[in-house]
Amino acid sequence: MAPVLPFLSVRRPTPMTRSRRPKVPILSESISILLTLSSFVFTGCHTTHARTAPAQPSPTKAQIPAPPAAKHPPRESAFSVYHNPTCGISFRYPRTYLLDESSDTENSAISEAQQQLTTDQPGATLVALVSIPPDAYPNTTFVSGTLQFVVNPTLTSDACHALAVPTDDAVTFGSTSVPGLTLAWVQRSSAALGTANLNRDYAGYANNTCYEFLLQVTTSSNPDADPQIKPADSPKILRQLSKIVSSLQLRPVPAPPKPPQI
């Protein structure tokens, strides 16, 4: 009978023993690779997020856009308003025009206009003088354009209306109505010594007072026939002044306080 020991010494390893040995290094290497990849992935996302995350805008600013800028200034911004509570009137005039009040006694234009009024119409008072700047119409024969606002409490209603009655065929006439007042007007033109004048006088009666607007546009001749100088359009300039009259607003004049009774 053959001995048993030699048979046992040459027995090959079982399949379980062969498969267990190579799995140990494979598992170890797999874990190492997974840890490396995990570290790389998590580190890379965090860095990318920190670099590329945009600042979050405010929800309110994103939903409410800024209003667009106005292309043109408001219509009223081109005008100024003159208000005189003593006379109970107000009117608009272009902001580029000049306005002087009768209280400015040092103004030579006011003084001269008042002296002429005193001569032509006793009792009349110049309240305000509106003037077009001399350079408003460059390279033309324009010299000046003025509007005088006058009050005369000494005239009766009939005498006031007579100021705007046409006296000959050389004048044109009409009327302008504003709330509480109708202003009749007459228009005439004249020329002398190389200067031409276009005048329009308004007159209306209310609050026991005669209200007057005296408009005048003055132009010069062009004796040298300079081609750079164009004739000024006097009727057009006069219409600009007449728009001031059309903006008139009349208010009741407050009654003077009664003296205390003794």
What is the percent of helical residues?
Answer: 25-40%
Which sequence of SSEs, written as H and E, runs from N to C?
HHHEEEHEEHEEEEHE
DSSP summary: helix tally: 6
CATH homologous superfamily title of one domain: Mog1/PsbP, alpha/beta/alpha sandwich
Largest sheet at a glance?
7 strands, antiparallel
Describe this structure in words.
It contains six helices and ten strands. The protein is of the alpha+beta class and 262 residues long. The protein has a domain at 79-250: 3-Layer(aba) Sandwich (Protein Transport Mog1p, Chain A), CATH 3.40.1000.10. A seven-stranded antiparallel sheet has the order 3-4-5-9-8-7-6, with helices on both faces. Strands 1-2-10 form a three-stranded antiparallel sheet. Strand 7 (181-192) and strand 8 form a beta hairpin. The protein is globular. The relative contact order is 0.12. The model is unreliable at 4-10, 13-24 and 37-53 (pLDDT under 50).
